[in-house]
Amino acid sequence: MTTRDECQSLDETDSLSALREEFLLDDRLIYLDGNSLGPLSRSSQRRVRQALDVQWGEGLVRSWGEAGWMEQPERLGDRMARLIGAGPEEVVVADTLTFLLAKLLGAALELRPERSVIVTDRANFHSDLYIAEGMAQLTSRGVRVVAIDRDSLDQHLNDEVAVVMLTHVDFRSGEMLDLEGITARVHEAGALMLWDFAHSTGAVPLDVTSAQVDFAAGCTYKYVNAGPGGPGFAYVAPRWQSEIRNVLPGWLGHVAPFDFEGTFRPAPGVRQLVTSSPSVLALAALEGALDVWDRVDMAEVRRKSLALTDLFIDLVEERVPGEFEVATPLDHSRRGSQVALRHQEGYGIIRALAEVGVIGDFRDPDICRFGFAPLYVRFVDVYDAVERLVDVLERGAHQRDEFRVRRAVT
Ligand SMILES: Cc1ncc(COP(=O)(O)O)c(C=O)c1O
Prior knowledge:
Bound molecules: pyridoxal-5'-phosphate
CATH superfamily of the largest domain: Type I PLP-dependent aspartate aminotransferase-like (Major domain)
Number of strands: 13
Strand order of the largest sheet: 2-8-7-6-5-3-4
Helix content: 25-40%
CATH architecture of the largest domain: 3-Layer(aba) Sandwich
Radius of gyration: 22 Å
CATH class of the largest domain: Alpha Beta
């Protein structure tokens, strides 16, 4: 079994270990919930203060031009591009993820006017299912959503399918899907591929270019660490950029917003996906988060992520054998950067762990989720988290009556 000393030496030789200092993290807390909300970085704090005190406080309305607020959607999109293997002018930052999925679904449906099916995973994040249904209802040509068991995708690919929308890393189990293989199969059926990268961006290396992805969207508040409610981003492959239409157009996606024309004329490229004013303060936080990411090699992130998740799974199985079912694939090629442990009393376990300083979260019906963000989670954190888990189970701390009632946010 790996000892605490061995974990400490893994941290000493870890090429990413210095990055932890970039985050304002309480050293007594073991934070394993970066798959839900990443922590505050010093650079985000600095950028937000600058945007608040100087750009807004002093610059006032002049900052739309002088501080580059207007260009933030493309400028930050270009900086996000590196995280998903996209090129310049292929990514835009705007809205939040669900809105961007709506826009990309709308665009994809128009590119396949003779087809009327959106295929998605019935275990997809509920917001994705809702927005797909919403977009289908908006069309006048009877588009329908077919929500399938994703393992049976091939059986559902036919000439009725306009677009397939899947989440690349499953939010419950942490299973990672085959980006390139699935995209290729969807293309063979003549359909378009839209990926939800909520649990992939900053968690696993992505290459939309070599996988020939058509569309993708993601959020920035999880592994990217851009703060609560942080903006979303959308990727559009260069081959579709002049073909798409923003089905929710607004003035800031117009080619000349200050001409105040009555008719929408789209800005070139991904800019047309912007609908309304950028959330400047939220974008400042993202800019700060990207200052950290600029220094990071995704291959190193992946190496450490797999080492952390392997260590966690091994220690749990050694210290509390048979207690949990590991829902996350053991196969590295199918694993994101989180570990999901199934347990009938999972909710109580997550609450009891929080009391002893280990933050994870719970997803119905029985999943304890633990996110391993390599920029700030240490090997020694993994060791200590499992020791505290053992302690919770031994004391029966998770079985207290108060944990039978769920809080609004689990
Ligand atoms: C897989 C997935 N898709 C979509 C969403 C919704 O994101 P937003 O609230 O930014 O629209 C989430 C949120 O956690 C998610 O995990």
